[in-house]
Amino acid sequence: MSQKQPIPILMYHAVESTERPDKYKHFYVTTKELARQVKELKSRGYTAISLDQLVAGLAGGPLPEKPVVLTFDDGYQNVLTNAHPIFEAAGWPYTIYLVSERIGGRNEWVEPEGYEATPLLTASEIATLAASPLVTLGAHTATHPKLDQLSPEAAHDELIRSKAQLEDRLQRPVPHFCYPYGHFNEAVVELVREAGYQTATTTQHGRVNATGEDLLRLPRVSIYHVPPFSLTYGPGALNFRWRVESRKDKRRRESS
Ligand SMILES: [Zn+2]
């Protein structure tokens, strides 16, 4: 029996063709960084799997030797233009979480905090992605609220509305969900379950255990822009390797 290693789910946001001012570093990686990371993962023996494959694998189905799951929050337009070609060339599956009532808009929810908004995927771009066998489209609510700060009724509504809207658009089940801002609590997890989602990803740092993992509180590994020769983070490539393979698991400390 081979001992099963914990599985990293990588969390990305936008994929920019050029660097942005420093204050945006947690919102993106560059196209170059992503290409280098995919190459690095391949050379270290990783194989990307979809969320459906992860669910089947955790239920006892077959998994590759070193699986990795790639996820992109919010549905930025530049994921299609900059990341999709990289995954097509690699033949690797990945997931994009969409905000169902912001399709064709911008991530204006960052504006109150002093950030400029970035364009989100349009309806026709989503149709293009939906036609690719590599792409899983998941739900990220209807309007990107902090679910734990809404009334139970309003949170329930966000969860079922986004699922119904995406299923209607895609004409397929949408069983995968991602908590906006990583905000959730016991009651929100129950609402996610009631809405019929099979998995939900958080922003809590850690890798997924091969057994006994709660599918509605999946931890992830946040990947963001690190300049190639950052003094704070060390060289970008080393930082990436450290983040993906670190055994540090902060889940217990971060949950309330
Ligand atoms: Zn988000």
UniProtKB/TrEMBL annotation:
InterPro entries: Glyco_hydro/deAcase_b/a-brl, NODB_dom, Polysacch_Deacetylase. GO terms for molecular function: hydrolase activity, acting on carbon-nitrogen (but not peptide) bonds. It comes from the Bacteria. The keyword Signal applies. It is found in: Secreted. This is Peptidoglycan/xylan/chitin deacetylase (PgdA/CDA1 family). It comes from Armatimonas rosea. PANTHER family: POLY-BETA-1,6-N-ACETYL-D-GLUCOSAMINE N-DEACETYLASE, PTHR34216. The keyword Transferase does not apply. GO terms for biological process: carbohydrate metabolic process. GO terms for cellular component: extracellular region. Its main location: secreted. Keywords: Signal. PROSITE patterns: NODB (PS51677). Gene3D superfamilies: Glycoside hydrolase/deacetylase (3.20.20.370). Residues 66-256 form the NodB homology domain.
